[in-house]
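Technical annex, item 7. During the second reporting period the consortium partners agreed on a shared format for inverse folding records so that results from different sites could be compared directly. Each record opens with the tokenized structure and is followed by the designed sequence. A conforming record, contributed by the partner at site C, is shown below for reference.
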């Protein structure tokens, strides 16, 4: 769970940085997108390296979900009789939303791929024109709101997940708990803002 989560966190950060190129205009963003599709040439064909990364991400997601299911089953087996009253001592809202928050994130990723990668549910998708596709998508208020809700859940997931991963990997310690929590919260907030600043700049007409 921790190892696959760190891999996925790396992808999230890279994806966020790439999205921020929308502020540099269509040429920069579309050139960056084309670079991702053409990286590895001429040894590899167009898009082949990108698909290798995609397959790696799919494996990481599968391992992450399988680990979550396994840990849930182990937790239930360890406590077959539920508490008569839920008592939350060390956990937080972020930790209590990890499971169903993960389901929401998975559903959103599926929609996100259909929307901005394949264009199946896009209002005016232009293959290869990432800038146009982003601007056209986030000019629509319901789309931006759905995106906001999903990114908020992603932030909660990362807040608890990053702290938990460091604990699992032995980085966290009782003497450093507060500091690690602050870093986890700061990272989650930075990622949420990094993903939302572009869509809201588009929605408000700053980018167009």
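Designed sequence (site C submission):
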């Amino acid at each position: 769970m921790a190892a696959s989560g760190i891999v996925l966190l790396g992808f999230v950060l890279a994806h966020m940085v790439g999205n921020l190129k929308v502020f540099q205009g269509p040429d920069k963003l579309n050139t960056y997108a084309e670079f991702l599709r053409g990286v590895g040439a001429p040894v590899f064909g167009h898009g082949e390296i990108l698909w290798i990364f995609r397959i790696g991400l799919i494996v990481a997601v599968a391992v992450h979900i399988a680990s979550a299911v396994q840990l849930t089953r182990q937790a239930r087996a360890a406590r077959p009789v539920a508490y008569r009253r839920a008592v939350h001592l060390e956990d937080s809202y972020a930790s209590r939303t990890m499971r169903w928050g993960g389901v929401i994130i998975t559903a959103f990723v599926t929609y996100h791929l259909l929307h901005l990668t394949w264009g199946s549910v896009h209002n005016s998708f232009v293959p290869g024109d990432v800038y146009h596709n982003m601007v056209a998508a986030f000019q629509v208020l319901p789309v931006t709101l759905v995106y906001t809700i999903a990114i908020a859940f992603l932030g909660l997931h990362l807040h608890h997940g990053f702290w938990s991963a460091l604990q699992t990997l032995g980085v966290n310690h009782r003497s450093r708990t507060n500091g690690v929590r602050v870093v986890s919260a700061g990272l989650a907030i930075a990622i949420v803002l990094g993903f939302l600043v572009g869509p809201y700049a588009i929605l408000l007409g700053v980018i167009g």
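The chain has eight helices and no strands. Residues 2-203 form a domain with the 3 helical TM bundles of succinate and fumarate reductases fold (CATH 1.20.1300). All partners now use this format for quarterly exchanges.
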